[in-house]
Design brief:
Elements: H1 2-15, H2 17-48, H3 54-59, H4 68-71, H5 76-88, H6 98-112, H7 115-144, H8 148-203
Helix pairs in contact: 2-7, 2-8, 5-6, 6-8, 7-8
């Protein structure tokens, strides 16, 4: 009975071999895609934020009355926040926590962009470990049978999957750390801008319908 269960587990591990290797390729593609996206975002942020100072921008006039030329100086996320406020401010629900809800909703959306890199950090090395242990079982079986050539081939696969999994996880970690700093900076700026907007809305005369 014990031998039957052990053979069943060995067969199950061999069944998992193909999905693990396929998922490792998915991780490699995801890591390259994330790295490229991070590089493009860096170039965009460098172009948009070269010499930009949000405090100085807000001191140049009212935020809600900014003309298109002045709006163009804002980074894309802050510009999007102002556009959403302009669309929502005339609704009655906006007076009862609407601005705070809008800011929190945007924060949740921007934090969700970190999910992919966070997942890659954990899944990549785990798949690399699985891809290492599964061929090692086959390699030990080949060693027992005296087939050293087959054992060497399985050991090469085992070490290769380890390298690929760790590399994908490392790229995901670097992307995660870089984008995490950008996300925190974006959230801080949006909150700062929202406080200014709330102050301007509070000073506006109440319209009686």
């Amino acid at each position: 009975m014990l031998g039957f269960l052990e053979n069943g587990l060995f067969a199950l591990s061999q069944v998992l071999r193909l999905p693990v290797i396929a998922l490792l390729w998915v991780c490699v593609g995801a890591a390259l895609f994330m790295a490229g996206g991070c590089a493009l975002e860096y170039l965009q942020r460098r172009r948009e934020r070269g010499g930009f100072d949000l405090s100085a921008w807000m001191q140049s006039g009212r935020v809600l009355d900014a003309d298109p030329q002045r709006m163009a100086l804002l980074p894309v996320p802050l510009r999007g926040l102002l556009r959403e406020v302009s669309l929502e401010r005339n609704q009655a629900s906006f007076e009862y926590g609407g601005l705070e809800h809008l800011v929190l909703e945007r924060e949740e959306q921007v934090r969700r962009t970190l999910t992919g890199s966070r997942l890659l950090v954990r899944v990549g090395p785990s798949l690399g470990l699985l891809g290492t242990l599964i061929p090692m079982g086959t390699a030990l079986a080949s060693l027992t049978a005296g087939n050293l050539e087959a054992m060497a081939g399985q050991m090469v696969v085992a070490f290769t999957t380890t390298i690929v999994g760790l590399s994908a996880g490392t790229i995901g970690y670097v992307v995660q750390m870089v984008r995490h700093g950008w996300v925190n900076a974006m959230i801080r700026e949006e909150r700062f801008l929202a406080e200014r907007i709330a102050g301007e809305l509070a000073r506006e005369p109440v319209q009686e319908g």
